[in-house]
Specification:
Structural class: alpha/beta
Strand order of the largest sheet: 6-7-8-3-9-10
Helix content: 25-40%
Strand content: 25-35%
Shape: globular
CATH class of the domain at 1-87 and 203-226: Alpha Beta
CATH topology of the domain at 1-87 and 203-226: Rossmann fold
Number of strands: 10
Distance between the termini: 20 Å
CATH superfamily of the domain at 1-87 and 203-226: P-loop containing nucleotide triphosphate hydrolases
Bound molecules: adenosine-5'-diphosphate, magnesium ion
Radius of gyration: 18 Å
């Protein structure tokens, strides 16, 4: 088992601290290595909240996120940062590329956190960019690319450190149908080839239906949707 989410609860306080919003009321599920899973649910149901907890961008109010047998609450700040960098890849709805860096440089940013970039890293980046059809765009800046192309760069950036878990929050949400379908196919291919587990939050049935499992959040709880 790669990931074990145990009775996770999440509450938010309003800024005055007078009211509590209970977004997740006890969520449990497991993910195996290489498994693909969609998380669906209405807007405001807590999908992003859950993904942030799974990715250790935020901490649960109660319960545990256990990755490869380690409870993430036991990790120091440095260990958590390393975990996020090495074990998890993130893709968001917007691509969040750095505008002043080239495509190739953007892809190598996660490498730079813990290592000097070597020709081996560059070769890997070039191969992946080639793979997503951006081999002739490596020296371009994000502003010179389309939204779909930027999102493909964000995919490659999320995969450059070969994470065991890929988290994607509405990755095709800002794209037209054709571009979104292309990205969906790409995600599935990479998942199959690299044995990277994926958790994808999506409203798109075309994407959710192609994941091995589908979980739905409703009223702060989660259940298998099929
Ligand atoms: N940092 C925060 N502080 C307070 N409330 C928040 C915060 N983040 C999310 N929420 C609230 O939690 C609920 C779930 O939000 P979210 O996880 O973003 O839902 P979804 O991604 O399913 O649309 C919403 O009501 C939202 O307003
Ligand atoms: Mg969301």
């Amino acid at each position: 088992m790669l990931l074990d989410i145990r009775e996770v609860k999440k509450q938010y306080q309003n800024p005055e601290g007078t009211e509590t919003l209970e977004v997740l009321r006890g969520v449990s599920f497991q993910v195996d290595a290489g498994e693909s899973m969609a998380i669906v649910g209405p807007s405001g149901s807590g999908k992003t909240t859950l993904l942030n907890l799974v990715g250790s961008l935020d901490v649960p109010s109660e319960g545990a996120v256990v990755f490869e047998g380690r409870d993430l609450s036991g990790l120091s700040g440095d260990e958590l940062a390393r975990h996020r960098n090495q074990s998890v890849g993130f893709i968001f709805q917007g691509h969040h590329l750095l505008p002043h860096l080239s495509v190739l440089e953007n892809v190598l940013v996660p490498v730079l956190a813990y290592a000097a970039v070597t020709p081996v890293h560059e070769e890997k980046a070039r191969k992946l960019l080639d793979r997503v059809g951006l081999d002739r765009r490596m020296e371009h800046r994000p502003g010179q690319l389309s939204g779909g192309e930027c999102q493909r760069v964000a995919f490659v950036r999320a995969l450059i450190n070969e994470p065991r878990l890929l988290l994607a929050d509405e990755p095709t949400g800002a794209l037209d149908r054709t571009t979104a379908d292309g990205l969906t196919a790409l995600l599935l291919e990479l998942n199959r080839e690299s044995n990277t587990a994926m958790i994808v939050v999506t409203h798109a049935a075309s994407l959710a239906d192609r994941m091995q499992r589908q979980l739905e959040i409703a009223d702060g709880l989660i259940h298998e949707a099929r």
